[in-house]
Amino acid sequence: MRIKSQKDFFAGLLYMGIGIAFAWGATNYNIGDGARMGPGYFPLLLGIVLAVIGAIVMIRAMVVETADGEPIGQWAWKPLVLIILANFVFGILLGGMPSLGIPAMGLIAAIFGLTFLSALAGSEFKFIEVLILAIVLAVGSWAAFVWGLNLQFQVWPSFISG
User: Fold this and answer.
1) Could you read off the pLDDT of 105-128 as tens digits, one per residue?
2) Measured by CB atoms within 10 angstroms of the end CB, which terminus of the chain is less buried, N or C?
3) Which DSSP category does 35 fall into?
């Protein structure tokens, strides 16, 4: 069979790979059964579902004809690097990095750092829109995790909260 859509084929392959990895990793935990689910039950089912979805997408990529074969484009390096970097910055701002002398800045600063750095990955950057998004995400995260779930972690930098 010939691949008729490269994008769909490799997307399906990625789903299958992630699904198989999750299902395989879940076997290291107690699976249990439907009535008494163990910690590996949900990752196993999630992995199986992802692998099945990937297989369906791959089969469709070899059966359904597309106009130009939907070739895979070039790697988008800027968004890839900035999104990964934004996640690292979030973790460092949230928990700090004592080995480098970086103190924990708290949830609010971490969300602002994540939002602004991720927004730079796009094709256009509008400061006011990103600021509004960061405020909404920070307030929503505080409401959900600190107020709603009563999780105990640093919200503000220590020089503000004392």
Assistant:
1) 999 999 999 999 999 999 999 999
2) C
3) S
